[in-house]
Amino acid sequence: MIYDNVVVGSGFSALGCIVELLNSNKKVLCIDKSSKLNPNNEINYNLIYDKQNLPLKSFDFEEQINTPFDPLKINESYSFGGLSNVWGSKCTRFFPSEFETWNINYKDLEKFYEKCEKILNVNHFNDLISRELKIKRENLNDEKLNIYSEFIKKMFAQQKEDKDFVYGFSRVAIDSKCYKCGNCYFGCPDNYIFKTKYFFQKLIDEKKIEFKYGLDLKEFKLKDNNIHLKFKNSEENIVTKRLFLGAGPIQTAKIIVNSLNITEGLYIKESQSFFAPCIYLGKSIKNIYNHQTAADGIVIFKENKKLNTKNLYHHFKYDQKLLEIVLKHKFGILFYLIPKFIVKRIFIDAGLVHSD
User: Which segments of the chain are extended strands (E)?
Assistant: First the structure.
């Protein structure tokens, strides 16, 4: 059977492709390497740590993960991505300057962003990030800020504008009904954190798309004006007229490298994760512990020509629950010697630095 359109993956980019195809009345087959939808929402306070002591919520990975784990291996596992729970709900847009070397115009992507943000229930706020992205005033809504940390809100209110930095509140896919329980990092029993899996399940139930689980795409080949798919774990023969790859930055790159049969000149750059406790030294802030742990604030360091860096994203969390677990893991019994007035000023800076 020859399909008109095949979409690989079930995350943010795959979702955008499918929505646009359905709006054009196109038939869609979506394939994903996960064996099933994972509806697990229970709160789990257990963390696992990578080789640099960076924490991740503990899950039952389908692959054998060593302790400490390899960050790249986690991203390749079946338990990470659109159908899983390993997602921080962060949906901040990339800046226009990041598309300068792409074969697509940022203006064309704005419609894609707007549609997906509506589905994922992502808000834009009246902050410097919205100004930088030129978000229309009618798309600004500060209502969801009630679930964000008072610590981060007051810290940002004391900052002055800086030509090198853009800061504001994280764009997160969280329902407006969310209350400040502070458990988002560990799981949401109320399903207030939006995951693409629920939207995909709806499309499957309504028979708007065909979906095949457990197909791990290795490569594709062009033959007789059609695209033939070859899988790592199946002999199933799938042929399509158009193929859309939304399998994540690591898997998508590997599929393309395999398909082009290139053994040199192409390689995957692994970004370096960081997770740094920081102490706020500004004016005194009355600490209110109610918070959500998905991500409170975001600071983007625009460019440093000396270091050859551009648009470094820092996600700020004021999360005393997570902080206490991490500090105890790092310092052991010495954690109890840290004065409480210092701990109350500690927030977490998490993000990625590119491999250069």
Answer: 2-8, 29-31, 47-49, 55-57, 165-169, 210-212, 217-223, 226-231, 238-245, 272-279, 297-304, 309-317, 346-353
Which of these ranges, 39-53, 151-165, 299-313, has the smallest mean pLDDT? 39-53
Tell me the per-residue pLDDT of 15-41, one tens digit each, with 9 for 90 and over. Answer: 888 988 998 899 999 999 887 665 555
Residue 153, C-beta contacts closer than 8 angstroms, at least 6 positions apart: 145
Q: Could you tell me the CA-to-CA distances from 336 to 318, 323, 327, 340 in Å, in that order? A: 19, 13, 10, 9
Counting Cα atoms < 13 Å in the Cβ hemisphere of 67 gives 8
Q: Which single residue is written with the structure tokens 């030129």?
A: 134
Distances (CA, A) of 326 to 28, 69, 266: 44, 16, 37
Output the pTM of the full model. 0.81
Complete DSSP assignment for 211-252 = EE-S--EEEEEEETTEEEEEESS----EEEEEEEE-S-HHHH
> DSSP assignment of 34-68, as one string?
SSS----------EEEBTT--EEE----SS---SS
DSSP readout, 96-114?
A: GGGGTTSSS-HHHHHHHHH
